[in-house]
Write a structure and sequence with these properties.
This protein has 462 residues and is mainly α. It has helices at residues 3-29, 42-78, 89-104, 114-151, 159-199, 202-207, 231-262, 265-276, 283-304, 314-338, 342-350, 355-366, 368-383, 387-392, 410-417, 427-461; strands at 211-212, 227-228. Strands 1-2 form a two-stranded antiparallel ribbon. The chain starts with a helix and ends with a helix.
Amino acid sequence: MQATNILILIIGLGAFAFFLGRGRSIALAAPLGGIRKLHSLPSYYGLHAALWCALPSLFLLGMWMMFDDPLINSIVVKSVASEIAPTNSASYNLLLNKISNLADGILPRKGENAALVAAADHMISLRVVSRWSLTALLLTLSSLGLLWGWSRISASFRARPVVEKVMQNILLACACLAIFTTVGIVLSVLFESIQFFRSVPIFDFVFGLEWSPQMAIREDQVGSSGSFGAVPLFVGTLLVSAVAMVVAVPIGLMSAIYLAEYASKSVRAYAKPALEILAGIPTVVYGFFAALTVAPFLRDLGASFGLSVSSESALAAGGVMGVMIIPFISSLADDVITAVPQSMRDGSLAMGATQSETVRRVIIPAALPGIVGGIMLAISRAIGETMIVVMAAGMAAKLTANPLESVTTVTVQIVTLLTGDQEFDSPKTLAAFALGLMLFTVTLLLNIFALHIVKKYREQYD
């Protein structure tokens, strides 16, 4: 059976175990005078049986899926004929990829080496044995778990503490998984960045003014040394993000104030969902809109005033990105403004302040932590945007502060460097990880700044 079918089967067995355990607890309670004579509610007995039925099987399924393919691949490669046996890691990966494609039917078998076809057949047979073995083991384990959980059910069995302890451990495991994932991402990016900085000095990368990561194959080719000065990328990222925030912050904040303080319930019921629709539009659609509509409009408008506006400019990309970010600021600001206690509004109005003065001097300062948090989230969103910049701002690494010219950003260059076949021991490819590390550092500093602002003003208004 496929892994998806096995997962559905385990969930079905868990549901069956729940109703079976719950029914057994009710049946045990009937002669004693009802479920009040049980230590726990019947649902806890059902959950106890379901957990014993499903959790061990789910753990085994996860471990099996993690190690199944690597083990099968290793067995298949070791069993191939000596004339096609790999001699290094590159040939190993190439051979394994070809055998997998033959086994999956992606490559035709006609005309292929007989040894490769035999290895593909061996891989298919191992996969079949693995799937059926996994199915048998999981069914056996689920049945034993169901039997064990069902047999422990009694009127005096403390099911609720056991179930709550298991759920607490599951929640702890999920929290640890999220933390370990973040640590793994940071360490992987950091390790590759260290490899890059062994080839390119960190001072040249952080303060260099020329970005040309193309590495020539021959010594006599132009640009054989490569230039990895990232300042043009940082400036381009900040320029596009600044234009986006100039558009998004005033419009988003003012729309949130209107919806929260001035709009009637009927207007709010339609305006707020309509505004949040902007957040659901794919970024590639924004990119098309920026490249086909906004950029030509800005070019023609600039020409009418005697200005030279590039067909791909930071202004076009940042403006459309700002429109995309408006819902982030508006929705969060609206929520925090609405959450300000009504007593603060009433007190301000009772002191003779007008509604606009109440909004300006009472509500906005009280909601400032949430507003700052929303703006920081929007800035992080703008810094990490890629598709709009690719389509509307271009890919030219220019060191300029003119929003009418073409620029590029850190994320665009990361995508460019990691597109296609790459050698991960080349400074050109490793530069993407160094850029990712810088991007991570910047967003981390933004979050620290936002937390500082939130803490400062929350102490004042709590």
